[in-house]
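Async update (no meeting this week)

Hi team, since we skipped the sync, here's where things stand on the single-chain job. The sequence we agreed to prioritize is pasted below, unchanged from the tracker. I ran it this morning and attached the output directly underneath so nobody has to dig for it. Comments welcome in thread, and please keep replies under the output.
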Amino acid sequence: MLYGARRGIDEGAGMRISAWTLGPEMRAEELEFLRGLIAKERPRGICLEVGTAAGGTLCEMLGWLGRRRRGRFVVVDSMGYFPNQAAVFWDNLRRHGFGRSTVDLRVKTSAAALTESEGRGERFGLILVDGDHSRRAASIDMAWAKLLAEGGLLLVHDDAPGFPGVRFAVDVYVRSDPSFQLLGTRGSLSAFKRTRVATGGEARRAAAWLASIPKYLFNVARKSENRWFQRAVSRSRAFERAHLRGYVDHEWARMKAGVRHDTLGIQRPEAGRAEFQALRKAGLLPGHRVVDYGCGTFRLGRYLMAYLDAGNYWGLDVTDRFFELGLRNLGSGARKKLKDCHFRAISQASLREAASARPDVVLVAGVLQCVPPRELHTIFGRLESLCWPTTQVLVTLLEADESICLGKFAYRHALAEVDKASRKAVLRMTVLRRGREAELLRTGTKPSDIRGRFGPTRGTLLQFRTRNGAKAGAIDIEKLVQKR
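Output:
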């Protein structure tokens, strides 16, 4: 559960507890994120940790806060997580140089401790929640958020789809509350800051509770080992909408927090340039009409807008919120043609409108990696609706030997599954170039280790045409895939 817990148990009590007993610890990136927040925000007053295990993360925080800013640190834990937990906890603190007077340990359930704390009128400058992951227990733990002082930090560990109970509680108590500002996320650690004290909390939480039920069930279904239940729930339109809302909120929060991203938000200055130059060399002309499906913040679109004739660029994505950030960072060439470009949120009406332009090329770059396997048929159905006999659909695929989920809204698809979905949409697939991601994943290379490696090193390039599509098109395929 918490970093250092296993070490504290092994050394402090002379016993060994199996890894599954302690659950997931904080990873190095999460600890570094937590350290940076404490250094930047400098929380004052009483600090609180709900769920401590052996006190590993607590010792780290006490060291980062320093004696001048430490104040009083309250720890709430029932001390029944593993045998002799209280003795292990105190011994771990002693080994790190902290005495019993440093911490106010309250050996109570979270609900009982919360009631007492409310009665005392306590307010906290920092709250770290990392307790029980069930929906009911996590909701009780998250209720501590109402005792966070204005300007205080709220940190929630295991806020991820793999822990649907925690995600549900955060949605109800924090994300629905306008007084909380998301500072960022690393791994499964989310950080919020209270900017003010909001009113009307009970009514707002009730509405958020009802709205979060579909998302909670969706995450339960993802985690469930019952394949029938998983398939039945995930194919529901309500849960598809919940997944889409979750994806948009997740990516938007990352962008607003300034997290660097390969295809969305803050990008490298040269991002998209190599792909654009390859398209030009392969025959893309200013007079061609291009649909940028999943354009995001215009990684590739900013070059296309400046190059294509007025009115020939169509940018489509699941939400127009992404356009807001992308339009701020356009170059002068793109800005001159901005009024003639078309930006639309994906819907049946916008697809019909884009199809009426008879596009020569539909670009789908970095989209399938965000799409769960069950929605591939939906994506290819939409792409088919854009196609005329002369239309070429170019798709980049981060391939794996079998379709897998690698993290929050991060997927890899088997080529056979993509082919199957495209054939249902009456599209003909041609493999233009095989990437190496599947091979790298087999060797144990993490996706984060190969992030940013474009071209044949990483991605597979596919072309799709209608069954009666012409052989020729705007793009010369041989020139597009030849080594440069």
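Quick observations from my side:
The longest helix spans residues 201-223.
The chain has two domains: 5-234, 273-481.
Reply here if anything looks off.
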